[in-house]
Amino acid sequence: MKKIYYSIPLLSVLLTGISCSKLTEKPESALVSEQFYLNQGQAVAAVTGTYRKLYETGQSLYNSLFQIGVEMATDDYEAGPRARNAHVRAISNLTHDASNDRMEQLWKQSYDAINASNLNIVNIEAMNQNQIDATVQQRLVNEAKFLRALHYFNLVRWFGPVPLVLRPTEGLSAQELYVAKASEDEVYTQVINDLKAASNLPNYKNYGDADKGRATSGAAKSLLAKVYLTRSDWTNAKLLAKDVIEKEGYALFPDFSDVFDIDKKNGIEHIFSAQFKGNSGYQGNSLASRSAPADIPGINGDYADALHVEGGLYKSFAVTDKRLSVTFTNGMISPKDGKYYALAKPQFNKYYDQTVVGNQAQSSKNTPIIRYAEVLLILAEAENELNGPTQEARDAINAVRIRAGVEKLSDTESKDSFRELVFEERRKELVYEYQRWFDLVRRGASYYITKLKAAGKTNAAARHLHFPTPQRELNLNPKLVQHPDWLAK
After folding, report:
1. What CA–CA distance (Å, rounded) separates 57 from 53?
2. Pairwise CA distance, residues 351 & 301, whole Å
3. pLDDT at 185
4. What is this structure's pTM?
5. Residue 145 and residue 157: Cα distance in Å, rounded?
């Protein structure tokens, strides 16, 4: 008898729907697992549906939840005038606690996606040769492992020790439902193992247009390099970054604006991205509306996020930096009356879609999760930590700087000054790509607190290197304990 698996993201009981669609289409049906994995087409559709958990409509992980739930707790962002939600403002002010509903959603949505991957892995591995081609079978399992690794990588960086669930739930016993936290080392070991398996995926050039956006060997290796970098395993971070650079066939676009050109989505620099398609079943990128003005005729923006007014990210750019005009705008032409409207202060502009009339929540611009420019910066950082600012390290960071139109670094930098330059380069290159919080916290409490207080966020403290385990999860699962940094003193 075929086993029935339940999709239960740590007691948040959900029916996990499996979509029958390409990556860019709206799912049309939802079937439970015992009805679904009957042939190759259904297996492909099942994994395709799991990708959508990265960027589904509304406040999903890579469609605004990352921004309001994570990046608000950095020195580059703060809650804007239309961000009235108390939970969002608490994160921005660093007064959030275990009851914060954005923390809860980060946890819940991540485990929902992990459960979907677990269902895919178990059920697709169980399919026989009459149901699925063996090569396709292994590819789909490795795609699911890649997605599981990505979500656990996020979870362990946000929350520290977390439950490590690797199989779908088969019953409703307390033994299965109540899962204790695994150590950070245990979670990272699983992430690394999953990404090593996913490194056997095809190269991105082997995918046709219908499969653009799927995980590839380059995506797995690039994410693995980033995992090693986060763990200060400089040797393996360098090895993986060089492997991607030398063997996977990626390159920088000639112009920085090409990275966010809708006509060049999933191009030579895009290693793995959250896929958006505006005006197609509400699959648009809502980050565009969250940073677009609300007071210019014809532009229906939320203006939910704002820059720090003085000494912030905008002013860190050289005036010659070509990334400045792509990342920010100081004014816009109204699509309604054709007039130019100056803004009181710069606003984010990376995901603004000129082809959209009206609601910018229908932006078709993808959100990069990892791209080739970051791999170059990973190499530069890892090489500097191993051997100082060698020519190899300078060449890697200078490739990014030359494309941006800023001067190359000389050979006079010390190891410490070069390290800081790499972090500042990441800050400018990867604005609004969900990297800043991770970069700040991996440098440690002193670095994080110094940067946040310099930006006027005086509540910054060592406990903010992690988020608290959501109170709702603690209430539901007696085996969970709060992160030590968030225990009442």
Report:
1. 9
2. 12
3. 98
4. 0.93
5. 18
